[in-house]
Amino acid sequence: MTYDLYIGDRTFSSWSLRGWLMLKSFGIPFKSHILGLYSGTLEADLAPFAPARQVPVLKTPKRHMIFDTLAIAETLAQAHPKAGLWPEDPARRGAARSLVAQMHSGFSALRTHCPMNLQNAWEEFEVSENLYADLAYLETL
Q: Cα(108)–Cα(69) distance, rounded to whole angstroms?
């Protein structure tokens, strides 16, 4: 059972990296396909996967199209229960899902002021109050 994962550049797209890491880390067989995230072809590249408008997109062995990292996680957890994507214990599973949801939809200042780029490091960067709040909350979690 092999999946097809359609992503952007893992160096610059945290969404793409998340989808890729999910499959890679849990040993789920897949083929990775890079779409034109920054080349201007993304909209055309995603046309076969409508209504998806962003990466990642997972095509299941049954050819279902799953887009959105949370939906991908739930689909994989259901299809591969022994892979351990979520903890078995209900309390720990609920906590894990809560943390993932926070990472998925929160931290707007962090996303705005710190776009992903794994090829560079920045020094003497001005940190806003909102960014400090996001970082403090991340440490709390």
A: 17
